[in-house]
Amino acid sequence: MTDLPPFLVALPLVASVVVLFAGLARSETGWPIATLAGLAQLGLAATLAYRVFTAGPISYVVGGYEAFYGIELVIDGLSASVVVLIAAVSLGVLAYARTAGPRGNPFYATYLLLVGGLTGVAVTGDVFNMYVFIEISGLTAYALVASGDTGRSAVAALKYLIVGTVGASLYLLGVGYAYIGTGTLNMADLSAMLAEVGYQSTLVQTAFAFIAIGLFIKTAVFPLHTWQPEAYAGSPDSVSGFISALVSTTFAYALIRISLSVFTPDFFAAVDLAQTLLIVGAVVSIVAGSLLAVSQTEIKRMLAYSSVSQFGLVLAGLAVLNQTAMIGATVHLLGHAVMKGGLFLAAGVIATATGAREVHEYEGLSERMPYAAGVFAVLAFSMVGVPPTVGFVGKWYIAVGAVEAQLWPLAAIILASTLLTLAYFARLVERMYFREPAAADDHVEGESAEPQPDAVVADGGRPSLGMYAAVLVAAALAVTLGAAVVPFAELLEPTLDLLLS
Amino acid sequence: MIDVLAAGPVDLLATRSYYAGTFLLLGIGAYVVIASPNLVKKVIGMNIFQTGIFLFFIASAYVEGAQSPIVGPKAVGPFVSPLPHVLILTAIVVGVSLTAVALGLIVRIYNEYGTLEADVLQEVRTDD
After folding, report:
1. What is the pLDDT of residue A68?
2. What is the pLDDT of residue A499?
3. How far, in Å, are A8, A352, B63 from residue A492 at the CA level?
4. Do A158 and B94 touch (CB under 8 A)?
5. Are A154 and B105 a contacting pair at CB < 8 A?
6. What is the pLDDT of residue A460?
7. Which residues form the NADH:quinone oxidoreductase/Mrp antiporter transmembrane domain (chain A) (predicted)?
8. Three-class SS of residue A124?
C-alpha cells in the first residue's frame, strides 16, 4: 500500500492552477513551473512503475471510501507504462514548446491539465471516473488545438469538440447500460457482475457496443476519425506533436482496459460479434488510413491519417486476444506515441526553418537541412517497421500473435500494412533525398504569392536547441527501444496473464 | 425486465416512456448535429443529445413510490437511488463547460470568417 497514486493526478492539476496564478503576477513563468512539474511527474511515474513491476499491481482507495461505493485507482503494468509514457512525452514536448510556442501561462496551464486528465484515464479503476477524466482530457485537447492563432485552428477545434463530445457521450451511455445491469461502476466489481448477468444479455452487449463505438471515435478509428486530421493539422506544431502522441494513445489504452478488465476475454469468447467489431474496425482503419495518407498533399494531414492506420494495428493486437498480440499492441501503442510525436515535431522543425508544409516542398530537403531530414527519415522508417526499430518489433509481435490465433486474413492485412505505410513515407523520403529542390527561388516566390495561414505560425527563425533535442531524443528512442522490448515483454507478462485469464 | 418485454410494445411504451423519451432526445440531438449547417444549432443539438443521456440515468434511479434519498430520523425507505443523480450532476457540469468552450470557439470563428453557416465557412476557407 502506498499513498503515491493520487498524486499522479493531483500534481499536474495543482501545478496547472499554480501556473495560472503565477501568470497573474508575472508572465513567462509558465515554462519553468510546467517543466518542474513535468520532472516531478516523471519521477513519480517512474517510482510507481518500478514498484508495480517489482511488487505487483497497486490499488488505492480514494478518500477512504471502500471500493464499490468509493473510487479506486488501480495501477498495473499496462497503466504504469502508459503513465510513464505520458510523463516522458509531455516533458519532451515542453523542451520543444519553449521557443516554438504557443507562449503564455494559459497555454501551460491547459497543457498540465491535459497531462493530469490523461494520467487520470490511465490510473482510474472506476468507469464513471474514467468518463470524467476522458472529458477533462477532451476539453483541454480542444482548447490546445484552438491555441493556434489562425481561424483554421478554431474551426478544427470546434469540429473536434462536437465529434469528441458525441464519442464521450456514447461512452457514458454504455456505462449507463452497464450500471443499470449491475448497479456498480467499479471495474473489478463490474467484470464479476457482468459475468453474473450473462454475456448473452442484450443489456451487456449493448453496453459494450456503446462503449466501444464511443472510444473508437475518441481514438479516431476509421470511419469515425473525421475530427482527427484537421485537429492535428490545424493546431500549432507543439500541440500536434503532443496530442498525436498521447491523446488517441490514452483512449486506445482505455479501450484495451475496458475490453480486458471489465468485459474480459470470456465476453469475447461468448460473443463473436464483439470480436468481429474490433477486427473489422482494425482492418478498415489500417487500409483506409493508409490509402488516405497516400493521397494527402499536406505533411501534417498525411501524418494524421497515418495515425488512423497505426491505431488500426493496435486495435488488431487487442482483437487477437492472446499474449503475444497484446505485447505487440502495448509496444506499438507506446512506440507509435514516440515515433508519431517525433515525426510531428520534426515536421515542425522543418517548417520553422524553411516554411515547408506540403509534400512537394520537401524536395531536396536533405541538402538544405541534412540533420532534420535525416531524423525525419529515421522516424519514418521506424514507423514503416524497418528492423531493429520499435516500430518493427511492435508489428512483429502483433503479426505473430495473429498467426498464433490462426486469424490468417488479419495477419495478412497486418503484414500488408507495412507496405502501405512504406507507400506514403517512401514518397517523402524519395523527395527529400533524390530530387533537386524545385527551382529554389522563383518557386518560393510563387508560393508566397498565395499566403499560407499556417506558415505564419513559424517564426521564420532558426529552430532552437530544445526543438532539435526533442526530435533527436524521439528518433534515438525509436531506434533503441526496439532492443528493450524483450525485457519489457517479460515485465509485462504477469500483467497480461492477469488481463487475459 | 423480461415480463415487460413479453407484455408487448404498447405496454412497453406506456411503462417505460422515459426510455422512449431518451432515445427520442438522442435521435433529435444527433440529427441536429449532423443536419443543421448552423454552428450554434450544432452545439444546441449536442446539448439535446447529452440531455437524452441525463434522462436515461435519472430514469434508471426511479423507484415506484420511493422517498427522496435524504436519510434522517423520520426517513422511511424505500429510497430513490441517489448515485445516478450525483453522476449526472457531474455530467451536467461537464456539459456546461463543453458548451462554454464551444461558444467561445464559435465567437472566434465568426470574428475570423464572418459566418456561422458550416457550408459558407467551407467556401470561404477554400478561397483563402
Report:
1. 64
2. 83
3. 21, 40, 45
4. no
5. yes
6. 52
7. 125-421
8. strand
Please, where are the H alpha helices in A235-271? 237-257, 264-270
- Reply yes or no on whether the pLDDT at A441 is more than 50: no
Q: What is the CATH number of the domain that holds B105?
A: 1.10.287
- What CA–CA distances, in Å, run from A220 to A33, A144, A419? 32, 18, 22
Residue B111, exposed/middle/buried by CB under 10 A (0-12, 13-18, 19+)?
Answer: exposed
Q: pLDDT at residue A262 above 80? A: yes
* CB contact (8 A) between residue B125 and residue A180: no
> Are B102 and A158 in contact (CB < 8 Å)?
yes
Q: Tell me how far apart the terminal alpha carbons of chain A are, to the nearest angstrom.
A: 24
- d(CA A320, CA A494) in angstroms, rounded, equals 18
Of B43, B91, B105, the CB nearest to A172: B91
pLDDT band per the 50, 70, 90 thresholds, residue B72: confident
* Whether pLDDT at B106 is above 60: yes
Query: Looking at this protein, which amino acid is placed at residue B10?
Result: V
Q: Does any CB of chain A come closer than 8 Å to the CB of residue B124?
A: no
Compute the average pLDDT of residues A151-172: 91
Nearest to B33 among A131, A162, A180 (CB): A162
What span, in angstroms and rounded, lies between the C-alpha atoms of B61 and A323?
40
Q: What is the pLDDT of residue A494?
A: 84
In sequence order, what DSSP letters do the residues of A436-497 get, joined into one string? --TTHHHHHHHHHHS--TTGGGS-SSPPPHHHHHHHHHHHHHHHHHHHHHHHHHHHHHHHHH
Number of domains chain B is built from: 1
Domain ranges of chain A: 286-438+463-496
Whether the CB of B60 is below 8 Å from some CB of chain A: the reply is yes
Bridge partners of residue A70, in order along the sequence? A67
pLDDT band at B40 (very low <50, low <70, confident <90, very high): very high
ipTM of the complex: 0.89
pLDDT at A446: 40
Positive or negative, the CA dihedral B61, B67, B68, B72 is negative
Which residues on neighbouring strands pair with residue A126, listed in sequence order?
A186
Cα–Cα distance between A58 and A272 in angstroms, integer?
Answer: 33
**Domain extent at residue B25:** 2-127
The type of residue at B66 is A
What share of residues in chain B are helix, strand, coil (percent, to 5)?
75, 5, 25
